[in-house]
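Run: sequence + adenosine-5'-diphosphate -> complex structure.
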Amino acid sequence: MPAIPSFFAEGALVAVMTTQPLDGPLDYKAPEGGCHLGAFVEVPLGPRKVPGVVWGVGLGGFDLSKARSIIRVLDVAPMREEMQKFLIRMGDYTLTPMPAMLRLATRAPGLSDPPSMRKVYRLGHGTPDRETDARRRVLEVLNTFGGLSFTLKELSDEAGVTSSVVKGLVKQGVVAEEDTPRDTSFPRLDPSRPGKELTADQAQAVTTLSAAIQTDDYGTTLLRGVTGSGKTEVYLEAVAQTLRRGRQALVLLPEIALTAEFLTRIEARFGARPAEWHSGVTMTERRRTWKMVGQGGAQVVVGARSALFLPFQNLGLIVVDEEHDNSYKQEDGVLYNARDMAVLRASICGAQVVLASATPSLESWSNAEVGKYTRLDLNARFGVAVMPELHAIDMRTEDLPSNRWISPTLQQAVTTRLAKGEQSLLFLNRRGYAPVTLCRACGHQIGCGECDARMVEHRFLKRLVCHQCGDTQPMPDVCPSCQAEGKLAAVGPGVERLSEEAQELFPEARIATLSSDLFGSARALKEQIVKIAEGAADIIIGTQLVAKGHNFPLLTLVGVIDADLGLQGSDLRGAERTFQLMRQVAGRAGRAEKKGTAMLQSFQPEHPVIRAILSGDEEGFWRAEADERRHAGVPPYGRLAGIILSSPDMQQAFDLGNDLARRNGPLQHVGAQVFGPAPAPIARIRGRHRVRLLVKAPKGVALQPALSAWIAQVRVPHQTRLTVDIDPQSFF
Ligand code: ADP
Ligand code: ZN
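>> structure
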């Protein structure tokens, strides 16, 4: 096959992939001045202009005089071959059509804007025709700040004059007005600044990682270490090593609330802040990041999973922090796991991946077991801090009135901490006041009108909220079913209710409730966390938000209100998730000099997962869990794909499901089985009925082509949507 040319002269026929839902690329003629392979362009499509990327040589086979021309080439670096490959391979893996993949890679606000300039002002050469106070002040400011240029607003504010004063000076040439590009490079990060002095464990891990980075080749390392063991310090050194080689690094974090603390650590280590990419960043900043990453004007990006699609010029390292976290799984639109796709991307561009976690996913653990990943362990906590003591509180023997959740034993432990001026954390992974609102007259439970889910009372908001679709309604006074007044009762605990109980038990204590929905912004939450870490609260009440990476040096007690919460249900990963979450929460205690204790309230302290948590035998837990999954032939020892059919018409969804189940030939061919159709665990979301099928296949078979052939046999009715979830994380 002849190599694809990297440049097309004007008039040459090229294939352009657009972000429109078409079957493939369309042919266009290269515009005046030609275009590069991978160029981001705008093309005519019917009466519209749509964005696209020059994908390769045009296919032709039609009257060339009919071919339309590319309208223009956008002012950004062309897509690299490596990115094109990544999109194709990821599209094949997740069964996503290329236009949808391309949308992920072009999600930069203002991408098609002309190069954006802004006016700046600096000292010119003329002398003013007339001296006034205001004019003198402007010149003073410009003289004081030497060669710096100002925006009009900055200059007039600094000088305390109106903008017309500055404009007047511009007319006379006293002040020079210039256009400069709005998108500028990020400040250089300096890897030669000294890092922390490393412990022997850490130094050894850094040596291994550095050697891997020196190869400029692909490799994945699982960096396991308890919370506080210094994993972040270790991967910061990997970032340093990557920068020394002149390559770029991407650090993925599972939670925006964590970025602020991390940015500060990067700044402390490298002397400047990196680029950021997540939903909390302004459009302007995002566009700047997108462009600078492509031109080499950003060395390190800290971001959410979608940062994987940034057009890195020379990506040498991807860190996935808290790699086990389920928020790496994108659950709508294109369904993908950012951790797995990071590995794919790195393998294509010859980069290293570091997967960091205190409690790795079973997938990563087993990849390390079979030698696909290198495994590095940090076993001790940094400094004097040691792992907390872990106890179960057997709730069957605690004397606790109904509608109370803090056992006398836990209460006593908190009281002791209060007396010593130490902090306690009460952990409950349930937002809101109470998970169920029940009418004591008729037994009615208030549900969401659009979903098959209960409405959750949020007392701070004075509303009921559906955690599925986000729908809210005011808290009613009468039962919506029997109209009885004053009979609605809260059943079960949420963090808000727990905080009420704590307030009653410990009236003197300062109590802070941390739940993502109680803060207007990530910044507000972050500020609150910093204050708490500095000692602004005695008792912290929190959801899983607090399990993720924050440092609370004064915290010495963690009470887990309901350690059994994740153990019920048929979730494949229930045990693994509970294990990870409990260990992470327990890891919050005793991070500084003081030894910590974690207490788990449980009605089944003899459950194997609870026992594994208490004994601290992680390898034992993973081996046991691995055996069970191997036996059942499920991931990571077998493959799963979920098929969700959703439709306003339940019968239609079921008919399609049955049709698929009958025509299972292409799946049988590769040894895969189909289960279902069955109503999905949440059988209705936003008014759409949901039916699911589950496909189970042995590891190592070509599952995706078989799935494609299978699905291609049926026609999906207009109103119905068919979604394929490869490697499903949750089964809702
Ligand atoms: P992890 O990422 O494993 O939770 P961190 O890297 O955040 O651990 O380390 C925990 C704390 O210990 C942080 O405050 C960090 O700055 C500190 N720390 C870790 N290693 C060192 C070191 N070698 N020298 C000084 N402080 C360290
Ligand atoms: Zn709902």
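>> summary
Residues 196-199, 202, 225, 227-233, 382, 551 surround adenosine-5'-diphosphate (ligand 1) (CB under 6 Å). The first strand starts at residue 7 and ends at 8.
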